[in-house]
From TrEMBL, chain A:
This is Sulfate adenylyltransferase subunit 2. Residues 30-255 form the Phosphoadenosine phosphosulphate reductase domain. The gene is cysD. It comes from Niabella pedocola. One of its GO terms (molecular function) is sulfate adenylyltransferase (ATP) activity. Keywords: ATP-binding, Nucleotide-binding, Nucleotidyltransferase, Transferase. InterPro entries: PAPS_reduct_dom, Rossmann-like_a/b/a_fold, SO4_adenylTrfase_ssu, Sulfate_adenylyltrnsfr_sub2. NCBIfam families: CysD, PRK05253.1, PRK12563.1. Belongs to the PAPS reductase family. CysD subfamily. Its EC number is 2.7.7.4.
Length: 302, 413
């Protein structure tokens, strides 16, 4: 190794910062889609570095399903304040009321699909031309094929067959009126890369990412937090377990894992040892059909 | 630990999917739930009851329509390296897919079926690798189990390929005899091919030196974004953000701003918000200069004693990637990193047959997957390097100004 070398995290960071700056340079009205999860927290950290000492030149947008972990919401508010970014929150609840949408029924009824309506309305309301998201290609096979600059039509739809070839590090963000681009700066990061980066940069995380006691019910091998948003049947067995979250989505569709890891080092060690994929272990929403993500993306999901 | 980005060239028939599946499986990158899903789907059971090719199975849209959407990216790591595989499908639209994948890779694995040897497809993959100046080539001679693991057959194919490599000036070619299906020489050394004493494929991928592929000699920096916070405490702050494309920049360096041609000095460098004395490729940096000069996105900072080319009439190689044909005399946008210039494709000199390297007349137009030599004229001077000498600053794309599609990969000369 010579004098001028970067390790893999530094290389990934440089690539992501480059992408962030392309977004700021090429678009009039970008937004960073912030969920409160570790991937979007990493995005905010990268954006801070990309524009330092200036502020992040676009708002953080949270599409609030109303089914969030309270810890994630508190973290969101504190982070927006710390980085001095504008925080825009739009609630799925409001869209449901205004547009008379039908809520999915069932035991773990998720507003994941309904989120798309609120997201597209928010894009329309603020005329966002680029929305930055924390999706990674290692998560899922639809994502493995999506571009870093992913052009969506005015319905937000992903059309895998019509994607632009993405050559070298040249990003073509030219779009027609009404279209917008979803940008994924951490496309080339894996779950473990994100954790190692969080550890290296000492990025604080919401407490639910570390082991804590929680009332959960066990459903088909997955541990779901007891909350007002799920239906509890008489036959359900509820117990208190020591758990942490590996991903943070809605309380209705994110499962916890049993864990005793209370520090980042311990979490990283557990993840390195795990033999189950992130989505497989923690996401109920992907289990519906094999092509669940592909369908959601075609419907406008990010 | 660093990153190796590589592309696998070959079709399903060559065992490409099986090879990628094998690398992921044997490096233990496949997790239990993914394996369970695979076991359910596997009809063709090889490695412990699963069909490794299914690991790279595509989208439902592709299965339904029997098509493959260009490049999928796959990830795995070992304690030595993180690997990013550009998995480009074979068959239809191959040139487009391969160029896209190769542009983001520093190594190519060319798969050869040991029974078939060097065929037209092998030549095509090699010509593209040579065109794109890929620094490392691995020729993986696969299906050795079907030729009785014969050393003689391996040597025969190797000798054939050496002729191709010599003709194309491919440097750094490595040959590995493998059986992706059985796992021979993929991660572990083959017991049946004890005559082969070189590294297994993964050992080679872990060890190949890629840090020196980055040019740290010729400093090139293009302004990507101007940081001007304009707050009370940072009132006079003006930093030029961009990626160091090649070379090293130091505080105190005398530089020229191009295309304007104005001289100035670097006064401060920041990386990730921290002040540093020097920055090098491929870091994302912020440079500050001594003089108050009108600078905007797309301007180049170079050292006065090491200048890139500046010109508006440029010979190029175009790899056409769009379904709409190239129209000579049409205007396009040339995007060179962050710089966007109106461009006319003036003259198409000839087409290059990517199977034979022959030059053929371009009278009947230029279509998808064709490679041509042409002259372009840009509306303002472009600051660039020859792709052959400094590929990182010698590449660009053409964008159709009406459809906004990326229609061509451009190698500047």
């Amino acid at each position: 190794m010579g004098e001028y070398t970067l390790d893999y995290l530094e290389q990934l960071e440089a690539e992501s910062i480059y992408i962030f700056r392309e977004v700021a340079a090429q678009f009039e009205k970008p937004a960073l889609l912030f969920s409160g999860g570790k991937d979007s927290i990493t995005l905010v950290q990268l954006a801070k570095k990309a524009f330092a000492p200036g502020k992040i030149p676009f708002p953080l947008v949270h599409i609030d399903t109303g089914h969030n972990f309270p810890e994630a919401l508190a973290y969101r508010d504190a982070l927006a304040k710390e980085v001095g970014a504008e925080l825009i929150v739009r609630k799925v609840e409001d869209t449901i009321k205004q547009k008379h949408l039908t809520e999915p029924k069932g035991k773990f009824a998720s507003r994941n699909w309904l989120q798309i309506h609120t997201l597209l309305d928010t894009i329309e309301e603020f005329k966002f031309d680029a929305c930055i998201g924390g999706a990674r290609r290692d998560e899922e096979k639809a994502r493995a094929k999506e571009r870093i600059f992913s052009v969506r039509d005015e319905f937000g739809q992903w059309e895998p067959k019509l994607q632009r070839p993405e050559l070298w590090n040249i990003y073509n963000g030219r779009i027609h009126k009404g279209e917008n681009v979803r940008v994924f700066p951490i496309s080339n990061w894996t779950e473990l890369d994100v954790w190692n980066y969080i550890k290296k940069e000492e990025i604080p995380l919401p407490s639910i990412y570390f082991a804590h006691e929680r009332e959960v019910l066990e459903h088909e091998g997955q541990l779901i937090a007891v909350s007002d948003y799920i239906t509890i049947d008489e036959t359900d067995v509820i117990s208190t377990k020591r758990v942490r979250y590996r991903t943070v989505g809605d309380m209705t569709c994110t499962a916890a894992v049993e864990s005793s890891a209370t520090t980042l080092d311990e979490v990283v060690n557990e993840i390195m040892a795990t033999r189950i994929s992130e989505r497989g272990e923690t996401r109920i929403d992907d289990k519906v059909t094999e092509a669940a993500m592909e369908d959601r993306k075609k419907g406008g999901y990010f | 630990m660093d990153i190796l980005r590589f592309i696998t060239a070959g079709s399903v028939d060559d065992g490409k999917s099986t090879l990628i599946g094998r690398l992921l499986y044997d490096s233990k990158s496949i997790l239990v739930d993914q394996l369970e899903a695979l076991e359910k789907q596997s009809k063709n059971k090889n490695a412990d009851g699963i069909d490794l090719a299914l690991l790279t199975d595509g989208l439902r849209a592709e299965r339904e329509q029997g098509i493959t959407i260009d490049v999928a990216y796959r990830y795995f790591s070992t304690p030595k390296r993180k690997f990013i595989i550009a998995d480009a499908p074979g068959h239809v639209q191959y040139t487009r897919n391969m160029i896209t994948g190769a542009s983001n890779s520093s190594l190519i694995i060319i798969l050869i079926d040991a029974r078939a040897g060097v065929i037209e497809q092998t030549r095509r993959h090699s010509i593209i690798a040579s065109l794109l100046k890929m620094p490392h080539v691995v020729v993986a001679i696969n299906k050795m189990d079907l030729v009785d693991f014969s050393e003689e057959r391996f040597n025969e194919i190797k000798a054939d390929y050496e002729k191709v490599a010599a003709q194309l000036n491919l440097a750094n070619v490595t040959y590995v005899p493998i059986s992706a299906l059985l796992g021979d020489n993929i991660v572990d050394h083959s017991e049946t091919m004890s005559w082969y004493t070189g590294p297994s494929l993964l050992e080679f991928l872990e060890a190949v030196e890629v840090a020196s592929d980055i040019n740290h000699t010729d400093p090139r920096f293009q302004v990507q974004y101007v940081i001007r916070p304009q707050t009370a405490e940072l009132h006079d702050y003006r930093g030029y953000a961009g990626q160091i494309i090649s070379g090293v920049y130091k505080v105190g360096d005398k530089i020229k701003i191009l295309p304007a041609g104005i001289d100035t000095t670097i006064t401060k460098i920041e990386v990730g918000g921290k002040e540093v004395n020097e920055a090098f490729a491929p870091q994302a940096a912020v440079l500050h200069i001594a003089d108050d000069i009108d600078i905007s996105r797309g301007d180049t900072f170079a050292r006065a004693d090491n200048l890139p080319k500046v010109g508006n009439e440029i010979e190029v190689v175009l790899c056409w990637l769009d379904n709409k044909p190239l129209i000579q005399g049409n205007k396009y946008f040339l995007q060179h990193k962050g710089r966007l210039l109106k461009t006319i494709v003036r003259e198409v000199a000839y087409k290059l047959d990517v199977n034979t390297l022959e030059r053929i007349p371009a009278e009947d137009g230029v279509k998808l997957n064709e490679v041509v030599h042409a002259t372009i004229k840009t509306a303002a001077p472009l600051v660039y390097d020859d792709f052959a000498t400094l590929s990182d600053y010698g590449n660009a794309i053409l964008v159709d100004e009406t459809s906004n599609s990326t229609v061509a990969a451009v190698l500047l000369n």
